[in-house]
Amino acid sequence: MARILVVDDSPTETEAFRSMLEKNGHEVMTAENGADGVAVARQEKPDCVLMDIVMPGLNGFQATRQLTKDPETQHIPVIIVTTKDQETDRVWGKRQGASGYLVKPVAEGTLLSEINSVLAG
């Protein structure tokens, strides 16, 4: 299946995503903040990135913008996965280049459907 990078500062959330994704055949990489997420994405070239917003240092909006504007990583779809449920956050996420936007907690079926959708183009 796909190689997916999970960028989230919560070990609990990261493990929940890892469990869901690995159970469904995906390979999972992780990063604890936006800066590390950008670095791992540049090095590993995952098929998809799941990006939290509220993180120390480089936040998810900033990291998403860096990835989607960089010729090396702009082909990698970024799905924002956050607790921020305001329409302004959704719009801003899309303006940063995000391919999708999900609100935590995310049901396994919803997450897998969104990943399949962005991977299909």
TrEMBL record:
Which SMART domains does its entry note? Answer: REC
Instruction: Name the PROSITE patterns on file.
Output: RESPONSE_REGULATORY
The UniProt entry, under Pfam families, shows:
Response_reg
Task: Say if the entry is tagged with keyword Protein biosynthesis.
Answer: no
Q: Which InterPro entries match?
A: Bact_response_regulator (IPR050595), CheY-like_superfamily (IPR011006), Sig_transdc_resp-reg_receiver (IPR001789)
Domain Response regulatory stretches: 3-119
Signal peptide segment: none
Write down the superkingdom of origin.
Answer: Bacteria
Query: Per UniProt, which keywords does this protein have?
Result: Phosphoprotein
Residues that the record marks as modified (4-aspartylphosphate) are D52
Q: Which PANTHER family match?
A: PROTEIN PILH (PTHR44591:SF20), STRESS RESPONSE REGULATOR PROTEIN 1 (PTHR44591)
Q: What is this protein called?
A: Twitching motility response regulator PilH
- The encoding gene: pilH
